[in-house]
Model the fold of this input.
Amino acid sequence: MLIKTKAIVISALKFQEKSLIVKCFTQSDGIKSYFVRDAFSNRKSNQKIAYFQPLSILEIEAVHKNKGTLENFKEIKLATPFQTIHTDIFKSTIVLFLSEMIHHSIHEEEKNEGLFSFIETALQWLDNHDEIANFHLIFLLEATKYLGFYPDISESEFRFFETKEGIFSPHQAIGSLTEHETNLFKKLLDLTFENDQKNFHVIERQLLLKILIDYYSHHLEGFRKPKSLEVLKEVFS
Done:
């Protein structure tokens, strides 16, 4: 079946000497993996390596056989040519980290247009703004709305947040955040990309990042911590 759709690049793995296996989150079909033959050859091709940087947003035409095997691109072009994301060290580190988080969070070959639209809009915001210190934190929290485990904030006046249940509680259980951690988490819940990005100190951001990664690990089966986590911490320390 010939499909025309937008696609966000999640990962690109070199295969043998000249080829790539590219994993994308597509607007039409969710997660799909593609085989790019001779991606590293010198021949002129519309399948340029530059297209497959982490979280690039593409417009693709592809043959989807839907047999659980690798699919094939027919046409590729950039849907959103980023101006700063792949040249700014802070932004490129963020997108590398978030691409890994997405890689470990989405596995289904099914449409999730809400999540696709959120990621696309968030990346466009990142590309056009400079105050980005909390971007990855807000992104990870907001993404849980589309992944199905956004915190229940109906009783957010309670003092402790239980990460396994995703609820606030008046009593501290074994799996609860401390009162200090819960207060930081509540502060994050109130943020949007447009809010002041200087709301947290470095140590607070690192603590919130740990909380969010633990929260993902509780709610996503088989979730693994990104290898780029330490790089992210180093760049934002």
The mean pLDDT is 91. The longest strand covers residues 2-15. The two ends are 48 Å apart (CA to CA).
